[in-house]
């Protein structure tokens, strides 16, 4: 067939230079706050982790540039997740060192033993996430592949910086005279909290939240709204091309044009792109019927004094196909099976594997029903969010399981399994809180300073 080109547009970026700039500043501020937090909690060890994390970020940036990796939103999420896991590895090590000092060991001996005892938890946690990344890369496509690439790169480097760079810096600081216990702190044994004894309460709350959320999603689906508020990337919509009188920047479009469009559509899921070399702007929204398109034309014409021929509209399909959705779901299922097998082999007990998968399923479902109930737009960022939760959930579970495995080996005759589990969760509670907190600091700063 002889093809004839009907139209060709060169479109600008969805996110402008300003967006990159603010996101970078947010990243730097978040990173600085995490390092300061680590120093405040872990003193000289926190300083060592700050140096190791700085080297980690430097190496990641060099490799991203060296291999010419294309950065997507899920890809950036992968980097943030791996920074969180790099902090997590340091927290596990430092908690172990403080425990060893609390048992009466010298600082030098505590550093050596702390790294040795933390090794299995760090390796198991990172390997399970690495398995997920490998399967996502193998089976996934597009944005999922981008997430898997940056996550895998980040995991390997985070293990290297935590186990090698942190250790070298710690030993160097010790050799420079930082030998006093006050620079490292100590960890006192806490009375175990009876978590397992309250399991009926925890299970009831979780089941109630999930069932209520799924029921609400079902009601929305039955009423024609859809179980989830799928974004343009999933379900397509209407593309409106507007020729303005002046050439506006991306920031001016966001401030002046987007609010007018949002008022008509009643939806904040709006994508805008400039057409290079013209004053045209492409506005993508959910699918609009004739009445809504007419109302939008009138509002834009009135607000920006446009001519009658300045606005054209057409329906567009979703950027994320059914095949991509299918691949993403299958990838997560296969990754979960492989992680289950790995945990089963490493912990020599199927209960550990099934419990880890149950916890993973719980975390994913809670966030899924929250998305459904709050009607938050489900697009590329949703995929990145869900994949990040899979990585975090399995890593957090492995750390606690590693401690349970260790305590089971030293179990006294009078101890029950419930006692061992309560003791293990209590011992790792500080680590669980601090790791979540350091990642939350990063995300909170991105939320305050970042773009939509």
Write structural notes for this entry.
It is globular, with a radius of gyration of 26 Å. It contains 13 helices and four strands. The protein has a four-stranded antiparallel sheet with strand order 2-3-1-4, covered by helices on one side. The relative contact order is 0.15. Helix 1 runs antiparallel to helix 2, helix 1 (17-42) packs antiparallel against helix 13 (417-449) and helix 3 (73-102) crosses helix 13. The protein has helices at residues 17-42, 44-66, 73-102, 107-139, 143-175, 199-222, 232-235, 250-265, 290-304, 322-347, 350-374, 380-409, 417-449, and strands spanning 237-243, 271-274, 280-285, 311-316. It has 452 residues and is mainly alpha-helical. A hairpin with a 5-residue loop joins strand 2 and strand 3.
Secondary structure layout:
Blueprint: H1 17-42, H2 44-66, H3 73-102, H4 107-139, H5 143-175, H6 199-222, H7 232-235, E1 237-243, H8 250-265, E2 271-274, E3 280-285, H9 290-304, E4 311-316, H10 322-347, H11 350-374, H12 380-409, H13 417-449
Antiparallel strand pairs: 1-3, 1-4, 2-3
Helix pairs in contact: 1-2, 1-13, 2-3, 2-5, 3-4, 3-5, 3-12, 3-13, 4-5, 4-10, 4-12, 6-11, 8-9, 10-11, 10-12, 11-12, 12-13
Task: Tell me the Rg in angstroms.
Answer: 26 Å
Mean pLDDT: 84
Q: Report low-confidence residues grouped into runs of 5 or more.
A: none
Could you give the distance between the termini?
43 Å
Note the run of SSEs as H and E: HHHHHHHEHEEHEHHHH
Strand order of the largest sheet: 2-3-1-4
C-alpha geometry: globular
Helix content: over 70%
What is the total tally of β strands?
4
